[in-house]
Amino acid sequence: MTFGSILAATDPVAVAVLLNELGAPPRLKMHVSGESLMNDGSAVVFYHIFSLRFFYEMGIPGIGEEVDWAEGFALFFRLSLGGACIGVAFGIGLLVVLYNLNRRLSGEDSVIQVVATISTAYLVFFTSEILAGCSGIIAVLFCGVTTKAFGETLYNDSRLSVHFWEITESLLNTLLFTLGGCVWGDIMSTEAYTGDAKFVFSAKDWVSVLLYMGSCLCGITW
How many Å apart are CA 138 and CA 128, to the nearest integer? Predict the structure, then answer.
């Protein structure tokens, strides 16, 4: 179940590229990305629950937790519904800010509206994930859905907001994959020591990686 929750997090990048090549409308691409984000949020919630049990069964002291059925359901509702409620609350707060800055002749207010959106996105994630112990991804998602549903007409310059988020998405995706590649390269090129045990990336690990990649490609193709 832990492995399944990892594979359940789909990446819409390849689908988005295909949609662009086919000339699909931008709204369809937005729907695919939104569905993927919801899927990623659910996958993270399930991974958090299943990995606790998985690490506990590994028998390493201080890692993992014996999660039974009742505890698992309680964790699921706390992570998902708690994150959703926090996201809606922050979304309402953002709507109030956008409403008070809804002066179309003021260029400064348009910039502040965009700054408010990204500030709220980070604040809602920090509040949900770190402070409340809920799902930060789901909180951000519901905050965005609330803002989109009720605040689209409150933007002084909606094109400014759309272009800003497109650039931010591209930069953060590039940074994410760059950092991931650096961490992965460090894992493969160095030897890690834990007490008397030494961990080296061996040929067996390469075979496992190829099998995982093959299963992911088969799932994407299907």
Answer: 9
